[in-house]
Amino acid sequence: MPERGFNTEFWADSFIQQLPQEARYLYIYLWTNEHCNQAGLYEITLRQIAFETELPKEKLPELLQMLEPKVRWYKEHDLIWVKNFLKRQSKSPKFLTAAAKCLNSIHHNGAIKEFLDYNLEKYSISIPYRYSIDTVSIPSVSSSGAVSSSSASAKAEKGCGGEDILAKKTTSPQKLADQMPKRTRAKPKQQEAGVFLDKVEQYIGVKLVQRAKLQGAVRPVFVKFPDTTPEKLLECFKWLKSNDPFCRSRDSPATIMSLPAKYPEWAAGKLPAYGGKEERHGEHRQDAGAYEPPKWEEAPESDDTS
User: Fold this and answer.
1) What is the DSSP string of 165-188?
2) DSSP structure string for 210-255
3) pTM, two decimal places
4) Mean pLDDT over the full length of the chain
5) Residue 279 confidence (pLDDT)
6) Which domains does the chain have, with CATH numbers?
7) Three-class SS of residue 160?
8) How far is residue 85's CA from residue 102's CA, in Å, rounded to a whole number?
9) Rounded CA gap, 108 and 5, in Å?
10) Which of 2-16, 131-145, 225-239 has the lowest mean pLDDT?
């Protein structure tokens, strides 16, 4: 529910003091009803006012006449303007922008111009409103008999596809970048990480949650260790799930997210070939059903010293 600023000196105003009771009531209503927008310039019918205030509809034109010059009533357009409304409200840039947006729904350029000029000249309030400009084509005949048209200038302002160049100039670079199609580039080793997760899903028998996040966590393993394969990582995963209480007490996604930092050897895809890890968790290898992975043979180092 929006809040409206209302001056406490309202009752001391000589203009208000000379008004009859019904006119005062109507004036307060025009400030505080839910149809009033941030600009104080809004559309409302006499029928709506009469319904909400329970004032006689036939008496409203006379009461609105009494509120001049504080209130302007555009009879033909069912438009009300509370002239000093904007002055009493917050004049922050955000509020003034909101007031400018309200003017887009007003179909009376004369009233909008009066509103903008009044607030600028009397209260020095500048409202960031931009008029819509319509281009009219007026043909003219030159001395040589050729017919020219001001629509040519409109065409000059538009591209071949009818795109408004002026509108493009006012579009921010970030908005233009967002409108351009984004190119998708495959990340290195993304496929290998996906194959590994597929194998993990087959091993545990359920689908992994947060698949994309897990794939992003596993992918650097293959980038950092080019010799690692999905099969090697799967063997490490099985070994740790069988021998390490940390891994056995957590579900697979949490295990996969934690393993690269907890076990660099797992990230390298070489954990079963490292005796140090097996000795550290040797007591768990006696558990029933402990997994015994094959040891991978490392390539012999070359004796060539040249």
Assistant:
1) HHHHHTS-HHHHHHHSPPPP-PPT
2) SHHHHHHHHHHHHHH-TT--HHHHHHHHHHHHHH-HHHHTS-HHHH
3) 0.43
4) 76
5) 40
6) 10-123 (1.10.10), 190-286 (no CATH)
7) coil
8) 14
9) 26
10) 131-145
Which residue is it, tokens 């409202």? 127
What pLDDT is stored for residue 286 in this prediction?
41
Helix extents (H) in the chain: 14-17, 21-32, 46-53, 60-66, 85-88, 93-102, 109-123, 151-156, 165-169, 173-179, 190-204, 211-224, 230-243, 245-248, 252-262, 264-268, 275-280
Tell me which residue has tokens 């992975």. Answer: 293
Structure tokens at 131: 């008029």
Lowest-confidence segment of 71-85, 160-174, 224-238, 264-278 by average pLDDT: 160-174
CA gap 57, 34 in Å, rounded: 19
Measured CA to CA, the distance from residue 24 to residue 63 in angstroms comes to 9
Give the separation between CA 49 and CA 63, rounded to whole angstroms.
Answer: 12
Residue 36 pLDDT level (bands cut at 50, 70, 90): very high
φ/ψ region of 104 (left if φ > 0, alpha if ψ in -120 to 50, else beta) reads alpha
Q: pLDDT grade, residue 166 (50/70/90)?
A: very low
Structural contact between residues 200 and 208, judged by C-beta atoms closer than 8 angstroms:
yes
How far apart CA 196 and CA 202 sit, in angstroms, is: 10
* Token pair listed for 230: 């999905």
Q: Three-state SS for 43?
A: strand
CB atoms closer than 10 angstroms to residue 155: 13
Cα separation of the two ends of the chain? 84
Whether 37 shows a pLDDT value over 80: the answer reads yes
The gap from C-alpha 31 to its chain's centroid, in whole angstroms, comes to 32
Amino acid at 52: E
209 is written with which tokens?
A: 């949650």
Residue 147 dihedral angles phi and psi, to the nearest 5°: -95, 125
> Which pair of tokens denotes residue 173?
């670079």
